[in-house]
């Protein structure tokens, strides 16, 4: 099974500020967690982080027929990007949305998620553990042939 993990703008800055909101773990910690999870679960995992909306759209398009699942944290683009939503719809790959913080308990502008309108599941507020759970969810579905 092949899973693509996409992270949007500023996720590469994790751990340097706002530890009360996003925790103390860094982007390197996230990459290590993804590697360890892929290894433990026998999954081929590719990760992609970009601060650019178009680059994320391009990556989703390039995933067409190449990946069995997408884990995506579009970060700030969650709340603005119809382009990312449309790209997810275009490729039709099962996807799970992850947020490190509990966006439903934050500012009003974080209450809308465009990518979430496509994703089968949203995991928010669990910190980096949310990514592991998203991978396990997609693996479970794939293993059942769904
Ligand atoms: O909770 C999440 O995972 C978010 O997707 C993170 C985004 C935010 O815009 C979303 O509303 C929720 C922010 C990404 C990281 O932002 C940083 C802010 C300060 C210091 C380091 C990273």
Describe this structure in words.
With 146 residues, the protein is of the alpha/beta class. It has helices at residues 19-22, 27-41, 53-62, 82-91, 129-143, and strands spanning 2-7, 44-49, 69-73, 95-99, 121-124. 37% of the residues lie in helices and 18% in strands. A 5-stranded parallel beta sheet has the order 2-1-3-4-5, with helices on one face. Helix 2 runs parallel beside helix 5 and helix 3 (53-62) runs parallel beside helix 4. It starts with a strand and ends with a helix. 34% of the residues are buried. The mean pLDDT is 97. The protein binds ligand CA2. Residues 10-11, 13-14, 16-18, 22, 73, 75-76, 78, 99-101, 103, 110 line the site of ligand CA2.
In whole angstroms, the N-to-C terminal distance is 13 Å
Question: In sequence order, what are the helices and strands, one letter per element?
Answer: EHHEHEHEEH
Strand order of the biggest β-sheet:
2-1-3-4-5
**Sequence stretches where pLDDT stays below 50 over 5 or more residues:** none
Q: Beta-sheet strand percentage?
A: 15-25%
| Helix/strand structural class | alpha/beta
Name the hetero compounds present: ligand CA2
Overall radius of gyration:
14 Å
Q: How many beta-strand runs?
A: 5
Number of helices: 5
Shape: globular
**Which percent bin holds the helix content?**
25-40%
Mean pLDDT: 97
Main pleated sheet: 5 strands, parallel
